[in-house]
Amino acid sequence: MSTGQRTERLRDELEALALLADGMTIAIGEPAPMAMVRHIIRRGLRNLTVIASGLTLDMLIAAGCVKKTISYYAGGGFGVPVAPAFRRAVERGEVSVWECEEGILTSGLEAAGKGLPFLPWRGGVGTSLPDVNPDLKIMQDPIRGETLLAVPAIRPDIALLHAATSDVYGNVQHCGGPGWLDLFLARAADRTIVQVEKIIPNEQVRADPWATTIARADMVLRMPYGAHPYYSRGYYLQDSALLQDYVAAAAPDDGRRLEQFLDCYCREPALHGDYLERIGIKRLLALHEY
Amino acid sequence: MQDHCSISELLACFLARDLNDGEELQVGIALPIPEAAVRLAHLMHGPNMELIFLGARMNVHHLERVPLPAFGWDRRVVRWTESFSDRGHRFEQVKDWHRRVFFIGGIQVDPYGNTNLIGVGSDYQHLKFRGPGSVGTPTLTTHVGRYYIVLNSHTPRIFVPKCDFVSTVGWGAGGADARTRLGLPGGGPKYCVTPLAIMDFTEDEKRLRLRSVHPGVSVDDVQRQTGFPLVVPAEVPTTALPSDEELRVLRERVDWVGALRA
User: pTM higher than 0.90, yes or no?
Assistant: First the structure.
């Protein structure tokens, strides 16, 4: 007869997020795990290095959480070429950028996952990227003598991800495939926390093990509608109107509407359930995937 | 001209004609003209084209209307997707990208088609304008068979003698072997299209050359709005207008919301 019991990895949202601390390097997947992002803003974490893009990155910058970003893209969408808080903070020198692009970022993450000091990459050769980011070294490859970039390992303290389902042991299954960076982030990070729409039985995981996209997530959180206002495939569509509200609030330089937005949607709701109540059942159900 | 079609429609039709059946056409975020162009080409003459919007690869030739990818990556786009091309297994098959066609914008462009998405200013630590970042353009433009530079305006602030920062290498320091010398396997930029003109690159020097001017625009207009001397051939034709059929398909089956006419 065996002794002991397998440890569950399902956690309460506050318990899991107590793990996050000022100064950490935090990687954020896509679609963004917004319920956890809102917790970061609510707690007012400071001096983070954030791997993220677009408006998710922008909200964290707007809330004053970010010291440095490893970002390949900070567009605003909706006709705004550059995310507004990102643009202001970088131009004023309040946030520094580890300048990169998608192939360089994934190379750095893969190097971390593989336990290597660096991986070579070609995209970026001949550009200003190694000039403005001195961590990218121009190298001669020892096999064919070609000029390549050596991208150092990028190893986040924690990856925060959103997915469709998981069992209580952290066997995560995305619906319709993972977001494009998620698996790179999970492999590279020291720890991975995944919020999911639904907790499923272990037996359902075993029915299709090949569908398990992230094995042994350190913690899983049950956060239905947790990616809102972003989409969650298999569940709901993107709530573009709320993202547009954010862009409109962040655009003026005075910060007044921006603070109102962050208070309303991030700081005042204490728990994810409170946020969903504030958004309202009608609005959430209207996003139901067709 | 104005009552016939808009400049954006003209550019979409020009680009669509230059795309061939069987090609993989990748369009990134915030590029409405290429977005329309690939969908128009797909319907007009490309039943075997593969459209890749933000990594979602689809063939939607059979649809009466081709879905807009403008809302990103949720079910409204993904329902037509056959695979996530290289997303999730990012950049694992760049060796085959010579079949692929790509499009980029830019906040600066120099005479050799090098472009900048990083920012404007002499000091990287104190930029006058912070750009959105390079997205995946350095890697894509390094490897794809050819790409197009598509700009929403044509001014001396965009067309500069030298980019403050280079995020994609077009023809580097110039010369037909510029890319080979840098070890960049892709074919480089083919055309640069703007609201004033279509430009290509000279064969030997790979310098920007005026290819055609849009109706109502003179060669002098274009040169005045360009911050360096363009190569100007003796004859500069007017950009060919879309056919009635192209405009009909564009307006009824691709851009039925009229985004290119706004």
Answer: yes
